[in-house]
Every structure is written in C-alpha cells, then in structure tokens.
Automatic annotation (TrEMBL):
Keywords: Coiled coil. Residues 215-360 form the Micro-fibrillar-associated protein 1 C-terminal domain. InterPro entries: MFAP1, MFAP1_C. Residues 235-278 form a coiled coil. Residues 199-218 have a biased composition (Acidic residues). Residues 45-66, 102-113, 279-294, 344-355 have a biased composition (Basic and acidic residues). Residues 356-365 have a biased composition (Basic residues). This is Micro-fibrillar-associated protein 1 C-terminal domain-containing protein. Residues 36-113, 198-227, 279-302, 344-365 are annotated as: Disordered. It comes from Effrenium voratum.
C-alpha cells in the first residue's frame, strides 16, 4: 500500500500538521520554583518547618511577656516608692497604708498575682500557611494585655480600693495626673522646638525673597529691555557714519593744506613779479642816469653827503629785502619739495595741472 497517509510507506512525510493539536511552549499550570542564595528549598525538611515556626512564635511571645512584666514591675515599684515617701513625710499615716506597705514587701508582688490570675495560653500553630496571621494576632493580644494592665490600677491602688480609702485614691490619682501632665508638657516642648526651628528657617528664606522682589521692582522701573540683535560689522550704521566722518575730516584737512600751499605759491609768484618789475625799473633808471652822466662833465664838487647817505640807506634796505626774499624763496621751495614727495601720483598730476592753468592764465593776462 503506497500512500502518503500510510506510516510505513515511502511517501510518508510525517504527521499531518493540520491534525496536530496546538501545544503552547509555556505551561502556566506548572509553578516555577526560584531559589536565592541562602534560602532553604521548600521541599527540604517540610515536616519540621511548622514545629520550628511554632517554637519561634512561642519564644517570641515569651520574650514579649517578660518585657511587659518588667515594665509593670518597674511602674509598680515607682508608685510604691512615691507612696512610701509620702507616708514617711506625713505624721498621721493610717494603719491601712502600713498594711499596704507590709503587703508590698512580701515575696509575692501584685504584678505576679495579676499575672497568676490572668494566665494567657499560647496558641498552637496547626497549619504552616496561617503562621503569619496568627503571629499578628498574638502580637495584638500581648499589646492589648499590656494596655489593660497599664490602664488598670497598680498594686497600691487595688489594695486601697479594697480598703475603701477615698483620700489615698485621690492622692494616687493625683500622682498619675502629674505624670501624664509631665509627659504632655514634654511633648508640647518638643513641638514648640520643632515649630521654632521651622519659623527660623522661614525667616532665613524671607530676606532672599525680599532681595529678589527688590531686584524685580528695580527692573520694572527701568522699563522693558529690548532684545539684543546681532548686526554684522558691514551693516552697522554707526561704524559707517564714523568712517564717513573720518573720511570727510581727512578730505577737509587735505583741501585746507592744498589751499594754503596754493596761496603761498601765488604770493611767491606775485612777489617775484614785483621784485622783477622793481629791478627792471631800477636798471632802466640807472641806464638813464648813466647816459645823462656820460653827456655831462665829471664834477664831484656839488655832491651832497646827506643825499649820498640816503641813497646808501636805500640800497642797504634793498639788499636786506633781497636777502630776506631769497631765504623765504628757499624755504618755500623746500616746503614745496617736501609736499610733492608726500603726494601720490594722482595728487601730483592734479597739482601740475593747476600750476599749468595758473601759468597760462598769467600769460594771457
């Protein structure tokens, strides 16, 4: 039988996947046990676990009872000591209080009597899963017992009530009230200290807030501040204006220097022209005098010394003037040369053009 459904056939390719039942990889019904370092496994020593827990519970309850017993004994001793001091201070102590003191000195104290009459049976743990619940209940019971014993009257108070002494009952109650009052005062003092510390912290924070408020008020008086915006150096108007002003001042200074030099050159030319005219006039006058003297006879008899002195004086003044003009001319030439050296090529070309225009105008005139 050759078929794909036959298991022993050569055409068999395994079980049909459509007929296989889905089985998830994770089975939630099985509990996964996680163990930590130092932890005892649950399967180990399961039979001894309830007994061990029960023993621990009983030991813990016994410790709690012993602590409560010690506290009650200390409270009873304090009350008895206070009562003994009060009895010794008072001269008219009653026989009932003496009997109370004798009964307190016996081996069996009142706290032991109360514990003997109020026997607390420890609970027996039957199931391991109820350990925590029973432990909490046991603790509550022990605390309740302690509160009942503390709230109940002490040994002295019980004996006094049995004896029917109203005065002694009032004194003991007064002692208890004083103790409660002291505790309340101590608690109130602690609360006042805490409150004082909080107030000091708040007062330390107040100056900082006031400084912040003053700063904010100052800012409000100054007015709203504009948001700073970055402007590149090329687009800054102030820099441009400053550069333009500097450039204008430099141009004005250069123009002023050029005008001063032009005026100097013009005055120099005018002076030279005037000197030349005077020199020509003097030469022409001398020529005329020479020609007239040649025609006349040489006769020095009629010469006047005063006139000769005046003529010498004039010649000397002209010489001084000529020397001065020469010095000024040399100085102007030096200044002109220095100025030309400091000029650029464009400025020299402009200066040459201006001087050429002046010469042409002078030639036309």
């Amino acid at each position: 039988m050759a078929s794909s459904e036959y298991k022993h056939s050569i055409l068999w390719r395994g079980e049909d996947p459509t007929k296989i039942k889905f089985k998830p990889a994770y089975d939630g019904t099985k509990k996964v046990a996680r163990y930590r370092k130092g932890q005892i496994p649950e399967w180990a020593d399961e039979t001894k676990k309830p007994e061990k827990k029960g023993r621990e519970k009983r030991e813990e309850e016994a410790d709690l009872k012993q602590a409560a017993k010690r506290r009650r004994q200390a409270a009873a001793a304090a009350v008895l000591e206070a009562e003994g001091e009060r009895v010794r201070a008072s001269d008219g102590a009653s026989s009932r209080l003496a009997r109370l003191q004798r009964s307190a000195e016996k081996a069996e104290t009142g706290t032991e009597r109360l514990l003997r009459h109020r026997r607390v049976e420890a609970a027996v743990i039957l199931e391991a899963d109820k350990d925590e619940k029973e432990e909490a209940e046991a603790k509550k019971e022990v605390l309740k017992e302690e509160l009942d014993v503390d709230l109940k009257p002490t040994v002295a108070e019980v004996n006094v009530d049995q004896m029917g002494s109203d005065d002694e009952d009032l004194d003991i109650r007064q002692v208890r009230r004083e103790r409660i009052r002291e505790q309340a005062l101590m608690k109130r003092k602690i609360e006042e200290d805490v409150l004082k510390a909080e107030i000091e912290e708040e007062q330390e924070e107040i100056p900082e807030e006031s400084e912040y408020d003053s700063e904010s008020e100052d800012d409000a008086r100054r007015g709203p501040l504009m948001k700073p915006v970055f402007v590149s150096k090329v687009n800054r108007e102030t820099v441009r204006e400053k550069e333009l002003l500097e450039k204008e001042e430099e141009d004005a200074r250069r123009k002023k220097e050029v005008r001063a030099l032009e005026r100097k050159a013009e005055s120099k030319v005018l002076l030279i022209d005037k000197i030349q005219e005077e020199a020509e006039a003097a030469r022409s006058a001398e020529d005329q005098d020479d020609r007239s003297d040649v025609e006349l006879m040489d006769d020095d008899d009629e010469k006047n010394e005063a006139e000769e002195y005046e003529l010498w004086k004039i010649r000397e003044l002209k010489r001084i003037k000529r020397d001065k003009e020469e010095r000024l001319e040399r100085q102007r030439e030096i200044e002109f040369v220095l100025k030309r050296r400091q000029m650029t090529d464009e400025e020299r070309a402009k200066d040459d053009a201006r001087s050429w225009m002046r010469r042409t105008q002078r030639g036309q005139t």
